[in-house]
Amino acid sequence: MSNKIKLAIPKGRLYDEVVKLLEDAGFQLSKNGRCYRPYISDKEIEVKIMKPQNIPKLVELGSQDIAFAGYDWIVEQDADVKELMDLKFNPVKLVAAMPKGKAKLKNKKIRVASEYEKISKQFLEKESLDYIFIKSFGATEVFIPEDADMIIDNSSTGKTLQENGLMVFKELLSSSTRLIANKDSLKDSWKKKKIEDFLMLIKSILEGRKRYLIEMNVAEDKMEKLIPLLPCMKSPTIAKLYGNQGYAIKIAVEKEKVGKLIPFLKENGATDILVFNLKKVIP
Predict the structure, then answer these.
(1) 110 has which bridge partners?
(2) Per-domain residue ranges for the chain?
């Protein structure tokens, strides 16, 4: 195998979020116009921009080593790939939806429109429904009511369904963006090491986005009470202040805890409190 990692990035609504993640991790991308092979600053990686629907199977087949892909399309294509992590980007539900005040489904043939043919047919057959399947290519919600009786599509907030007079009949699966790899690529020692390093950098950015770094000064007589109560990843970083005027303390804290933590720190003697965004956190 060559000493290159082939990385597929989905075009469309996920593209900007994935590129921002890569840039934060230290990989600079540049492309011109409609170029589907952007330059990346790491010479050991080749990037290709592809439709999300095509990515999982191509990773399985080995034409791409790693990729960012929606779980819904991994399931739809029954792609035999290794999931490296769930980035939790673009969380959606794949749902079957019908017009509000729907008629009974049994004992009638219904028209079902969806981009997800495999998932849809498995669901419809499990429900013992008599159906005609219509393959859609985006904007599936417009099929109802003239062209379909039911759609099977992904939904993030349900707002689009509501705006089109639709209600959820059944939820089929939950999906989000995953980082996946070809299984044979992970058997190659060079590629495995490169993929592990890449994964470490991606994880470090996502961990950094979840936390703030808090610095504070604490008088010596307040230390024994405060230190055991501090949330942190492992243990606080503590340094003596110049002139024996107490201690400087650093902690990395999950963002959702900071709102209650700052008043607590003030009440327990912390002063000169500083809060910083973190770029990377590598446990």
Answers:
(1) 131
(2) 5-89+176-208, 92-175, 211-277
Question: For the segment 218-245, what is each residue's pLDDT rounded down to a tens digit?
Answer: 999 999 889 998 988 888 999 999 887 8
We find that the CATH architecture of domain 211-277 is: 2-Layer Sandwich (3.30)
Tell me if 5-89+176-208 shares its fold with 92-175: yes
pLDDT at residue 159 is higher than 90: no
Cα 19 from chain centroid (whole Å):
13
Domain 92-175: top CATH class: alpha beta
The distance in angstroms from the start CA to the end CA of the chain is 31
Single out the residue of 262, 263, 246, 248 nearest to residue 212, CA to CA: 262
Whether the CB-CB separation of 39 and 29 falls below 8 Å is answered with yes
Helices (H), the chain: 15-24, 55-61, 71-76, 117-126, 159-163, 189-209, 220-226, 255-267
Q: Could you tell me the two tokens for 148?
A: 């379909």
Q: For residues 22 and 2, give the distance between their C-alpha atoms in angstroms, rounded to a whole number.
A: 22
- Please state whether beta strands 92-99 and 166-175 pair in parallel, antiparallel, or not at all (unpaired): antiparallel
Question: Over 60: is that where the pLDDT of 175 sits?
Answer: yes
Rg (CA), the chain: 25
Residues 87 and 209 sit within 8 Å (Cβ to Cβ) = no
Nearest alpha carbon to residue 149 among 159, 139, 134, 163: 134
Separation of alpha carbons 48 and 204, rounded Å: 23
Q: 133 - beta bridge partners?
A: 112
Say which DSSP state 228 is in. Answer: G
| Domain 5-89+176-208 CATH class label | alpha beta
The predicted-structure confidence for 76-111, as pLDDT tens digits, reads as follows 999 999 999 999 999 999 999 999 876 667 778 999
- Bridge partners (DSSP) listed for residue 74: none
